[in-house]
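Hi C.,

You asked whether I'd gotten around to modeling the 391-residue construct. I have! Everything is below, sequence then structure, no commentary in between.
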Amino acid sequence: MTDTALIVVAAGSGTRLGRGVPKAFAEIAGATILEHALRGLAAVDAAFVIVVPAGHEADASAIAERAGLVATVVAGGEARADSVAAGLAAAGDARWVLVHDAARALAPAALVERVIAALRDGAGAVVPVLPVVDTIREADAAGLGAIVDRAALRAMQTPQGFEAALLRRAYETAGDARGASTDDAQLVQAVGEQVVPVAGDELAFKITTPADAERAESLLARKEPGMREVADIRTGIGVDVHGFGGEGPLRLAGIEWEGVGLVGHSDGDAVCHAIVDALLGAAGLGDIGGLVGVDDPQHAGAHGEVFVRAAVALLAEHGWAPVNVSVQVLGVRPRIGTRREEAQAVLTAMLGAPVSVSGTTTDGLGAIGRGEGVQAIATALIRRRPTPVAE
């Protein structure tokens, strides 16, 4: 039985990443960030505890199973320190505890082993660090100040390792002040304990922004351990048109607008329906009619989100994942620009990948130009998920 617990903190909102889902559940290179992180750590001899946003526990358990792990999954809190505390509570009587950010999804197992080795050699707290290579200046409201000597600076990484009793004492001592902390080693230092550095790893960078995600995806595409390299990218186009005059409210792009609803067996959301056809067409899986039926009673009045999520699930069953979707809405009303960001956020959350929305008119030409309905044209980019290499 292992004496080490590895707490994987995956409760971040991912606002700066801009995928519309909690960061750890955003997909890069055909799998979630959390799955990549767990897959890279699967060989570590530790009891895994995964901390996720409330409501995502079942998803995290399934992801851990795909990564080949048995893990305890618990809900985190609003602040990172609250999430770590929840992980500590689930770590049981482990002698040593490692705290790792799921966002450092490419961190290799060798890095973790260095931290564990230092703990077993007698250190009470261990952090992986890298030298700072950029020129750093002080700054204030007046502008830039003096250059800071970077030779004395180190960039902190995770996993950070601790004697479990020491980390618990640091959290108890910090009390309410722990909420402002983003670094567990800082709390340990605050109780007078020394923190031992070990060599970090360039691959353990934190995925925070879209640029970070692109970097990670590029590295994963070159070589993913135990996976076949796949560069299978496909595109699809979906078109849908619905006229005004429906009995329900006007729903378009996953949100409700003022005005007369669109005619349709479901809610008539032409944007969602076009996205579905674009996704299915790209994967060669038919169209929305074949997916849910055009007159199935159970889908009477159903929101477009139901169909989008069903399409994403069907793609996953066949080894595909959305990369992004762009939608052009043609019509006199509603004016898409007034709620563009809201629509994009809602659709991105449905898809688990970025969705952009734009609107235009037809200069009064045709039924759409006369304001009789709305047309949507969607273009989808999908990629095949990596598949295990046959032995």
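If it helps when you're writing up: Residues 257 and 334 are 7 Å apart (CA to CA).

Thanks,
B.
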